[in-house]
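Have a close read of the entry that follows and walk me through the local backbone shapes. See right below:
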Amino acid sequence: MSRHLKVVIIAILALMVITAGVFWLSPHTVDANQNFHIAQDARVTNEVHSVRTTSVPTASPTAGTNQTSVPSNAQALAHSIVIVKASATLATKHKYPVSPIVTTASKITPTPPTTHVSLSREAQAQGPYKVKGNAILGADGKPYLFHGVGRDSLEYTCWGDGHFDARELSYMGSGTNTYAIRYWGANTVRIPLSEGIWLNGQSSQSCSGSQYQKLVKQTVDALTAMKLNVILDLQWSDAGGQSLQAGGPWAMPDADSVTFWQQVATTYGSYSNVLFELFNEPHPQQWSCWNAACTITDTGYSDDCHCVKTLTYNSVGMQALVNAVRGTGATNLVIVAGMDWGYDLSQVDAYPITDSASNLVYDTHPYPYAEKQPNSWDNAFGTISKKYPVISAESGEYDCGTGYMGQLLAYFDVHQIS
């Protein structure tokens, strides 16, 4: 054996030993191929109270270079009741042109609410839930605080990312931590969905609508057995049938969104732990269009071509989705996000959403854009939280810091926002 060959072999063996050592000594590895490789310091930063949750990073679909609002492997830690996704395509998460991201938030003193009720972090679901004033009550009649994790991937892929078995889902709840497993301690899991896949399947993945619905139900049933809350979130829509396969993050719901909720509410109306988040991040131009039917022209990412499209379609408005759910007899909590990509709730009294079951919760999604800084929080959602229950199903910070989120979570605590 030549001297050079011996050197190569020794180098390879050394590399193998080092690699094995790194793998086995990694203190927070669940599995070599899983998405839970999150450092402890990151978990401490983002595992916070309330419905707010942290998105577990997931694989992203192939997309064009000009895509907007496309999932990314670089989804950063964030928070919120359920999801805080920070995409690698930061400038394109919101409809372009976009307001600049402000990385250093100015400090504010939160405005205290008129009344304060001490809320504890329940480890398990306590449904059925009922809205009373600006509070959400559990089955025991006590105010309930949601805090959770966003479990992405079913909004853009029919089969999910392959990590929806009961064992892996259990890591989102409570358990005994070990050197290899870290539990997130959530009481809520948010599952983003696609109306296009739910209704028509995803032929590009050889997956039918019934197969998708079966996976969703298996996931909900597994989480229900663990006594966790589940938020079913309509994340991607089809722009009136013009954005096919998984669809995309369009500005407003369409007729297929109504059909989607009629079917989902029929299936899960009897689940006391399931909440319905009717449409992720509405962003029409007018409040009247947010509330009621109108014609929408929007530019966004579409899964069928992995490209950006500009489409015009008929929106049904948020009221129609509430009506669709209640028309099935379901009385589950319904979650309605505000304007400006789900952020702004300032005009909900001027454009009221009525709910025959009186079980409606408003939703806000703060991110560190110029118009979403701390000095705007009172007007956008703080003041309204004194009158109606408010939840934050998404929020986040793009710089892996805590300047924005630290202030936001403190503000949520003071205002009893989940």
